[in-house]
């Protein structure tokens, strides 16, 4: 089931007891913007930040990135990202842009087809165990070249074929490309959920879909 962004105000209101400081100078409590010096331990608060950021992006009211020096000063001694993003290397997808986030906000892992391999899992393990990140989001997208290639079949160069081989089990019996892209995201989500460290740390793992035409991120 795909969840749209219309529930954001209610979700932020529900999370109001959580204290997350914002540079906006607003009242204490949850805000739309994460302070890089604050740890977020609640996955719902992390998700609310992502939804708020995508909403700003869609409405062309993204934050001004005029605090880079201040952020670097905060981050020089460590990082406190609030979400791990596993997504495709496609140049049309940049999580920091379509989620309207800053330095230190997202722990991003990218490869063609948003697949899971040992390197991806190791990176996730580091984020959830050592950085205490509460949320992992796998973001697929329409017109994914890697999934399109796997869906079409055929043989490719040695290294590219390893990506195709990783996608193939996810898209068996898919009757259309859109379904294949969705199933590939679901497959990655389920593999991450089974990871021993992810389970031990009780990190939440969900899938999402980015539409390259509209900019909308749908969570499912």
Strand content: 5-15%
Mean pLDDT over the full residue set = 88
Given helix and strand content, the structural type is alpha/beta
Spans of at least 5 consecutive residues with low confidence: 1-30
Distance between the termini: 5 Å
How many helices in DSSP terms? 9
Strand order of the largest sheet: 2-1-3-4-5
**Order of SSEs, N→C?**
HHHEHEHEHHHHEE
Radius of gyration from CA coordinates? 18 Å
The tally of beta strands, per DSSP, is 5
Shape: globular
Q: Helical percent range? A: 40-55%
Structure report:
The chain is of the alpha/beta class. A 5-stranded mixed sheet has the order 2-1-3-4-5. The protein is built from 9 helices and 5 strands; from the N terminus they run αααβαβαβααααββ. The longest helix is centred in the C-terminal third of the chain and has 17 residues, at 177-193.
Brief digest:
The protein is about 40% helix and about 10% strand. The chain contains nine helices and five strands, in the order H-H-H-E-H-E-H-E-H-H-H-H-E-E.
Keywords for this structure?
single chain; 220 residues; alpha/beta; five-stranded mixed beta sheet; globular
Show the helix and strand layout.
Layout: H1 8-14, H2 43-58, H3 68-75, E1 83-87, H4 95-98, E2 106-110, H5 118-130, E3 135-141, H6 145-152, H7 158-167, H8 177-193, H9 196-200, E4 204-210, E5 217-219
Parallel strand pairs: 1-2, 1-3, 3-4
Antiparallel strand pairs: 4-5
Helix pairs in contact: 6-7
């Amino acid at each position: 089931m795909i969840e749209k962004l219309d529930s954001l105000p209610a979700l932020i209101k529900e999370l109001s007891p959580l204290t997350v400081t914002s540079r906006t100078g607003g009242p204490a409590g949850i805000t739309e913007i994460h302070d890089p010096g604050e740890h977020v331990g609640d996955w719902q608060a992390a998700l609310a930040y992502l939804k708020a950021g995508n909403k700003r992006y869609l409405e062309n009211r993204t934050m001004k990135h005029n605090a880079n020096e201040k952020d670097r000063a905060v981050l020089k001694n460590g990082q406190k990202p609030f979400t791990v993003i596993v997504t495709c290397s496609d140049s049309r997808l940049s999580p920091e842009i379509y989620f309207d986030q800053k330095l230190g906000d997202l722990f991003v892992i990218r490869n063609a087809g948003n697949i899971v391999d040992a390197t991806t899992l190791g990176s996730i393990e580091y984020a959830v165990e050592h950085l205490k990140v509460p949320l992992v989001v796998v973001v697929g997208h329409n017109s994914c070249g890697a999934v399109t290639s796997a869906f079409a079949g055929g043989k490719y160069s040695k290294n590219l074929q390893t990506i195709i081989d990783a996608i193939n089990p996810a898209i068996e019996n898919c009757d259309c490309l859109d379904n294949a892209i969705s199933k590939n995201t679901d497959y990655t989500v389920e593999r991450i959920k089974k990871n021993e460290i992810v389970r031990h740390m009780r990190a939440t793992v969900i899938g999402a879909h980015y539409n390259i035409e509209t900019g909308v991120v749908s969570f499912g």
